[in-house]
Amino acid sequence: MATQQEVERILRVDHAGERGAISIYTMQIAISKYLWPGCVPALEEMLSHEKAHYLIFEAALKKRNARTCYALPFWNFGGAALGLITALFGPTAIWSCTAAVESTVYKHLQEQITFLKKHDKDALLAVQAIEADEKSHLEHALKNGGKPARTNKIIWAVGSSSTSVAIWLSRRL
């Protein structure tokens, strides 16, 4: 039973994380349309991926009759706040936020994949279905100025630590 609970916890956290990503990108797009239109096509593509990922995890939770994360509103609000703040600071901040969040997410996915390979093939497929998109988001962000350089350290710290805290909180709720 403990293994099944951990699998459901993984799916809940990933579902909530996708909700947060949707909120980040939605807010960044809203601001970027006016201030940084060159960022919009890539952000819209990433948003479409995150929406698809959200549906993958929602379906996986429903298939198991498992609940969603109680911290879902936190992910929604926190993502919107992070998206708003970083978008106001410009393209470098947008891509630094994306890189920080996606690097944390990608590391988390690798840990999940290791566990799920041993315990649940269906959940493993759900996680693997998003892995390439998340890595491509990270690579795009790094290529477009999101490297953790001196000027981006604060954004990296906020993006990665807020993602880590949200993951930690969601594992408990």
SSE topology sketch:
Layout: H1 2-35, H2 40-63, H3 72-89, H4 91-119, H5 121-143, H6 153-172
Helix pairs in contact: 1-2, 1-3, 1-4, 1-6, 2-5, 3-4, 3-6, 4-5, 4-6
Keywords: Iron, Membrane, Metal-binding, Monooxygenase, Oxidoreductase, Ubiquinone, Ubiquinone biosynthesis
Pfam families: COQ7
GO molecular function: 3-demethoxyubiquinol 3-hydroxylase activity; metal ion binding
Main attributes of the structure:
mainly alpha, Ferritin, 6 helices, 173 residues, 86% helix
How many domains, as an integer?
1
Helix fraction, binned, reads over 70%
- Total strands: 0
N-to-C CA distance: 18 Å
Mean pLDDT: 88
Please identify which CATH superfamily we are dealing with. Ferritin, core subunit, four-helix bundle
Extract low-pLDDT stretches: none
Protein name: Ubiquinone biosynthesis monooxygenase Coq7
Pathway: Cofactor biosynthesis; ubiquinone biosynthesis
Organism: Ectopseudomonas oleovorans
Keywords: Iron, Membrane, Metal-binding, Monooxygenase, Oxidoreductase, Ubiquinone, Ubiquinone biosynthesis
